């Protein structure tokens, strides 16, 4: 027992270092194994190949999402100041509010309903919504910081680029989610323009949500500090690797080829950042404070 207590982190910094090591030593499992298995299980659920309670199991969906998000969450933890916490809290409140507005009024995404149980809900909105939404925006933000280089210092260039990148992520996400039956749009006009079952109004709504989300996160987190953390934390964009594998694979299964190509472009962007390399298979070592 005494030995166990000695191995436990005693400060926030030690806890952060322990989490860094945990993610770093399990990158392949988190960022490749989990999304590959997730894609197989979700497709099998949609094709009715899995029996209850495995088919679209809400607990497994939420657990898998949290695990795949863990590199981003752990990477950001040392940067969470009071200002950053306020920004994330405000964005969480916005996410719940706009989702409730969407399912009750059809604005701004268009009328839709959830076809799959995504876990406990409050007023019809899944409580896990921030876990699904906020990391998408932050992944886009981090990717753009790396790819833009010095141009990221220009406030307008940074914001516009990230907003367009978030929109591109939804070009991948929504068609795959609709194909799985996660949600479905209805009350569509007979001549409504659809993109793999997704009305164009959805993307107009995402421009609004992406703009608000990016502005909040840009206010809450210092871009120079983020870049410094990125330079020393190679796994921070691994959640985006999971996104490419999971949703690229799902869209490929259903023949949504434009979203597959866009997912591939994100993969190319990741390769240009040199974020996903031989460190995948690192042999675990002791925690830094135990060396």
Structural overview:
Keywords: Membrane, Transmembrane, Transmembrane helix. This protein has 291 residues and is mostly helical. The chain has one domain. 66% of the residues lie in helices and 5% in strands. It has 11 helices and 6 strands. The protein has helices at 2-7, 12-24, 27-46, 58-76, 82-105, 129-148, 155-180, 200-220, 223-232, 238-253, 257-273, and strands at residues 112-114, 121-122, 125-126, 183-185, 194-195, 198-199. The strands form 3 sheets. Strands 1-4 form a two-stranded antiparallel sheet. Strands 2-3 form a two-stranded antiparallel sheet. Helix 3 (27-46) runs parallel beside helix 10 and helix 6 crosses helix 7. The two termini are 20 Å apart. The relative contact order is 0.16.
Question: How do you describe this structure in short?
Answer:
By secondary structure, the chain is mainly alpha-helical. The protein is built from eleven helices and six strands.
């Amino acid at each position: 027992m005494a030995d166990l207590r000695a191995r436990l982190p005693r400060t926030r910094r030690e806890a952060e270092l322990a989490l860094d090591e945990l993610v770093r030593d399990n990158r392949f499992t988190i960022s490749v194994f989990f999304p590959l298995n997730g894609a197989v299980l979700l497709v099998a659920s949609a094709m009715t190949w899995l029996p209850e309670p495995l088919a679209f199991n809400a607990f497994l969906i939420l657990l898998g999402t949290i695990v795949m998000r863990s590199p981003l969450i752990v990477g950001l933890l040392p940067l969470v100041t009071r200002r950053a916490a306020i920004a994330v809290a405000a964005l969480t409140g916005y996410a719940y509010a706009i989702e409730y507005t969407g399912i009750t009024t059809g604005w701004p995404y268009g009328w839709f309903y959830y076809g799959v149980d995504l876990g406990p809900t409050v007023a019809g909105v899944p409580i896990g919504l921030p876990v699904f939404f906020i990391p998408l925006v932050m992944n886009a933000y981090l990717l753009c910081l790396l790819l833009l280089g010095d141009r990221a210092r220009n406030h307008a260039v940074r914001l516009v680029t990230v907003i367009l990148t978030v929109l591109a992520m939804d070009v991948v996400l929504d068609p795959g989610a609709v194909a799985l039956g996660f949600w479905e749009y209805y009350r569509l006009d007979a001549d409504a323009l659809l993109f793999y079952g997704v009305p164009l109004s959805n993307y107009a709504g995402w421009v609004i949500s992406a703009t608000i989300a990016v502005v909040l996160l840009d206010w809450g987190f210092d871009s120079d500090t983020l870049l410094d953390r990125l330079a020393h934390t190679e796994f921070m964009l691994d959640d985006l690797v999971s996104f490419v594998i999971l949703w690229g694979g799902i869209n490929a299964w259903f023949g949504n080829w434009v979203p597959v190509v866009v997912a591939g472009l994100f993969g190319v962007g990741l390769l240009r950042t040199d974020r996903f390399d031989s460190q995948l298979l690192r042999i675990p070592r002791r925690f830094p404070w135990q060396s």
